[in-house]
Amino acid sequence: MKIRVNASKSYDVWIEKGARLGVADELKERGFKGKVAVISDSNVAPLYSEEMCDYLAYAGFEPYSFVFEAGEESKNLSVYAKILSFLAEEEFTRTDTVLALGGGVTGDMAGFAAATYMRGVRFVNVPTTLLAAIDSSVGGKTAVDLPQGKNLVGAFYQPDLVVCDTDFFKTLPYDEIRNGLGEGVKYAVLEGGRIFDILKQGITSENLDEFISLSIDAKRRIVEEDEKESGARKFLNLGHTIAHAVEKESNYSVPHGLAVAYGIKLMADTAKKRGELSEKDHSEIVSLLEKSDLSVDLMPLCDLIPHFSADKKRAGERLTLVTILGIGDCRLKEIALSEANEYFGV
Ligand SMILES: NC(=O)c1ccc[n+]([C@@H]2O[C@H](COP(=O)([O-])OP(=O)(O)OC[C@H]3O[C@@H](n4cnc5c(N)ncnc54)[C@H](O)[C@@H]3O)[C@@H](O)[C@H]2O)c1
After folding, report:
1. Which residues span the domain enclosing 15?
2. Domain containing 90 — which CATH number?
3. Which of 170, 189, 217 is the last residue of a domain?
4. Is there an atom of ligand 1 within 6 Å of 137 CB?
5. Average pLDDT, whole number, for the chain?
6. Which atom of ligand 1 is nearest to the CA of 150?
7. Hey, whose CA ends up nearest to atom 35 of ligand 1?
8. Residue 163 has pLDDT above 80, yes or no
9. Considering the entire predicted model, what is its pTM?
10. How many domains does the chain have?
11. Which atom of ligand 1 lies at the shortest distance from residue 130's CA?
12. Residue 235, ligand 1, Cβ within 6 A
């Protein structure tokens, strides 16, 4: 199926088993031509890059492959600069294309290179992790990290096409599936309804495509309403203030999805304690986390709250939390940093 995202640029997200084999033909049909830089990391490249380049060459494109060392540590200015130099050395022009083939690290960094090389070239995102498929590949946030913090340099740059092939997940390690499910739980709690029910039943090969489509559609609606995060997009930060604190406190040893799941659990616990969330919805959220193998007890809130002041989503001394009043009923709540202990009952 194809989902149309109408942001500042309109583009399709094509979700289908085996879709990666049709990317080259799809690009040709859409009028892409010339050079395509396939950017992937050292885990993904040996599995899928050569195949992608072969299909592109067969369809008449001039493919080039750029591979970087897998891992968040590579999402930095130095690797980003290497991608730009690579494009320049291979004489890419404005009508050529950057294609990200990988997880969120690849998509964020290749997307930022596409946004800035010659002030913007065509960008195609082919996510190969569950997290990238349901979250990072849609919405146009591109970035690299600085030593001072994650995603501190970047741009909003919508892709021209996103292609989600669920067959990629066959080679994805279990921990990475679990990581993606953390963001999946976020959509389930924000939206309720069918996404929640699918996660409650457990993801299977039968409902995976539907789960991905529903998650992408949820993100589409939010991004269409607020592309640059001045309003509705803040809902996507559900669980994230706590998650960023967990990541920082653990020196980034806790994977993002797990940290988000824990953040959602603590937001649900807090809402129940404050009498804002019913026992029933609270226990449904807790069982959903258990079902997704995301039931973790990482660290106490009192160790996390001090990190809230470093949250880059804060405005001055105030922080916007996404509170859970029910499944499918979340609200934005602004609190002063100085009120955080009292709010969380710590
Ligand atoms: N732009 C956004 O809106 C947004 C949203 C959420 C997260 N992010 C970013 O996404 C990044 C995390 O993304 P991620 O979790 O996909 O990490 P990742 O890109 O590092 O991928 C995780 C691991 O899986 C491997 N891998 C990827 N696809 C594979 C496959 N099909 N088979 C086998 N191995 C495979 C990778 O090599 C890597 O080791 C972070 O940098 C985060 O900041 C961005």
Report:
1. 2-170
2. 3.40.50.1970
3. 170
4. no
5. 94
6. 43
7. 172
8. yes
9. 0.94
10. 2
11. 16
12. no
80 in the same domain as 38 = yes
The answer to whether residues 188 and 274 belong to one domain is yes
Q: Could you say which of 142, 170, 198 is where a domain stops?
A: 170
**Are 183 and 263 in the same domain?**
yes
* pLDDT tens per residue, range 57-83: 999 999 999 999 999 999 999 999 999
Whether 311 and 179 share a structural domain: yes
Predicted local confidence at residue 9, as pLDDT? 93
User: Do 333 and 201 share a structural domain?
Assistant: yes
Dist. CA 170 → ligand 1 center (Å): 15
Summarize the confidence of residues 257-268 as an average pLDDT.
96
The secondary structure of the chain, three-state, reads CEEEEECCCEEEEEECCCHHHHHHHHHHHCCCCCEEEEEEECCHHHHHHHHHHHHHHHCCCEEEEEEECCCHHHCEHHHHHHHHHHHHHCCCCCCCEEEEEECHHHHHHHHHHHHHHHHCCEEEEEECCHHHHHHHCCCCEEEEEECCEEEEEEEECCCCEEEECHHHHHCCCHHHHHHHHHHHHHHHHHHCHHHHHHHHHCCCCCCHHHHHHHHHHHHHHHHHHCCCCCCHHHHHHCCHHHHHHHHHHCCCCCCHHHHHHHHHHHHHHHHHHCCCCCHHHHHHHHHHHHHCCCCCCCCCHHHHHHHHHHCCCCECCEEEEEEEEECCEEEEEEEEHHHHHHHHCC
